[in-house]
Design a protein that fits this description.
The structure is a homotetramer of 212-residue chains. In chain A, helix 4 packs antiparallel against helix 5, helix 4 packs parallel to helix 7 and helix 7 crosses helix 8. Chain A is 70% helix and 0% strand. Chain A binds a DNA duplex (21 and 21 nucleotides) through helix 3.
Chain lengths: 212, 212, 212, 212
DNA sequence: GATGAATGAGCTTTCATTCAT
DNA sequence: GATGAATGAAAGCTCATTCAT
């Protein structure tokens, strides 16, 4: 996984042959991995630094604090999901097509950013009362992501395409089904491949478990 | 032991006559509450002991360690869900009726043991690599719970009632949908009332989001 | 030096023969000594704990933080000086007699609490911008101590006994002369003996350096 | 080098033409200011460098260490006081006139180098056992300053002009009175103006507090 | 001359756990 | 059964200093 932030532009890198490592990026990668494996609390700066091949002090040269890094990582990830989904929605199409796009983007996200999803599920669905600021940090973004989808469901209901249930409930069914399927595989150490499950997921979500 | 939610703090209790407080139970209640609020790591023995109205040393007189208590709480809860579900399944009925029973028991569990569900979601869906033993502790129980349901789905597929998809996937859709809907409400501080959502959930799971 | 706070009352001590050490008191003594030698910043909890013969954790069992202990020590000391001075003033007498009492109490304080005076001079006359709360902590006490003396000087001026200068300036002359003489000796490792200097100090303060 | 007080921060300077900023001097100014505000320990190289508008590395290009800079600053200041006092003494006059000169120079010094005085009081009267070398650094200079004044007092005593007390004690009374009055004002954020207090100080020191 | 990334020793503080009473 | 003082390993973080460029 590699959503590196502030990656140096190509021409800033020196010495093509020589492996000029960007310290900040290495920290990002290792932190993401370790946060996703251990959660925020059990991850230690010492381990992140060790794995990144730097001294503890170097970590603090690049980041103000453990929380700051974590929050940063969190926001980066959610922004990617949001952006992708918005872009997909703007392509237009029927309600069902757009719903499929939302589902598809979510599946792609789980596939492409498995480490990040682990991390987010570890800490955000996790200890609710966590450093409460995370709640605050997330709420706006979460809404920005959810509202358009709810709107889409409403649109479908007006057209008589979507069942007349609470849009929020429908939304949660979509998110819950996809994330549970994806995270179960990811937590079990399997690599999540959306191709294997996407048609099944669409089937279940659209038409339910029962035949007819 | 019973998972009482919102158990009164020690000092709120009235000791009329010789109504003895069972120390162990008081610890259970407070630990459950605090674990569910803060997660395993952020909960401290000190706080649990304080809230239970006992000395820190007393905690260690009753429990070997923080983890032991946590694991105990964990198992108690899962056993309740398992037992209830098994009992419900043994009542027999058509596949759909039994599936409805499974869903119903799950909803009841989320409703009756909200604190416990918070706790479990805080730490088990949480930091995956947690004290790795939890994984080991859970796997057997989880399987004992999941297998009969998978078997039920298979039975339905053989009868042509349930769509021809991976039973595991179907199972995860059920679990994911229900838990997400329930936990969203619980984490948002609302009291989860299964009556309000159970028919909608059944509708979505059985027939999907789309009309026809 | 031994202004122990919360010292156990006699009957709380167990085992007369056996040396039952009061941990909190030992920490007080060592902290006072080390703060006075090194100042707040250069003193470390590790050293205080070591010298007190306890583990680092034990320090934090008894005190919330390094600052808290320091502030506590600070207040204890100033209260002693204040109380002694007030008591002396309440005995009444002529203005000169009362002024002599104030001077005498100050000298006694420097003599009896040399460690504390070192500490206070190390940090309070010291880094002005220190954890600013100290300023706040001290101002009220300082005023409570200074005001009665200023009032005394004013009384003397009304009676035509004390020279017509700013009372604040006169007060500072008294404090500065005494503290400089005392601290010079204390910092130079000599034991400060007020008997040796008190008559000289009174002479200088009352009649000046010059003859006639 | 000159101890300019309230030197403008780097970024406030206007570089018109090729008016070169002497890096070393800028560091001096900012270090003096910050040391005087925070004391040696609480001042950081980072802040000094920031305020001087240079990189941290640049600091170490100009100075061997934090202590070295501090000691240098210390010596510069004391030399100024010493030189001024020596010069004033060499002008001759009666004992009283020369004593007035000493007092006057001291007052001028407090007025002209308030930042430096803050600094010196922050750290030298401060944590006594400080990097013990400071003691060693200072003793010679201190003696070079004090001895002539003590000699002057002795001369006055031989002439029957100065009261027959320990010259050291008299000296400390002078230093203590002046420095306490000056520092009280400086620490309280007022600008110290020697004109306002010099006649009062002379009165107190020469003739005491009491009338007649 | 100047830079800033990197370092590591050292600091304060937390907390699960032990144990004598 | 119950207590609470004591412990020490480990964590997050700071900062003077170095050094390749």
């Amino acid at each position: 996984m590699h959503y590196s932030v502030n990656a140096p532009r190509r021409d800033e890198r020196v010495k093509d042959g020589d492996e000029k490592v960007n310290t900040k990026e290495v920290i990002f990668e290792q932190a993401l991995r370790i946060f996703s494996e251990k959660g925020f609390e059990r991850a230690t700066i010492e381990e992140i630094a060790d794995q990144a091949g730097i001294a503890k002090g170097t970590f603090y040269y690049h980041f103000k604090s453990k929380s700051e890094l974590f929050e940063f990582l969190l926001q980066q990830g959610t922004h990617i999901l949001m952006d992708n989904t918005m872009t997909a929605l703007q392509k237009g199409g029927t309600v069902v097509e757009r719903l499929e796009a939302v589902i598809n983007e979510l599946l792609s996200f789980f596939q492409d950013y498995q480490e990040f999803c682990r991390m987010i599920f570890s800490e955000i669905l996790g200890p609710a009362a966590a450093p409460t600021r995370w709640e605050e940090i997330f709420k706006p973004d979460r809404q920005k992501y959810l509202l358009p989808v709810i709107e889409l469901i409403r649109e479908g209901q007006e057209q008589g395409i979507i069942r007349n249930i609470s849009p929020q409930t429908a939304l949660q069914a979509i998110l819950g089904t996809i994330s549970t399927i994806a995270m179960t595989q990811i937590f079990h150490g399997e690599h999540f491949d959306k191709m294997k499950v996407s048609s099944q997921i669409r089937e279940i979500l659209f038409h339910g478990i029962l035949v007819a």
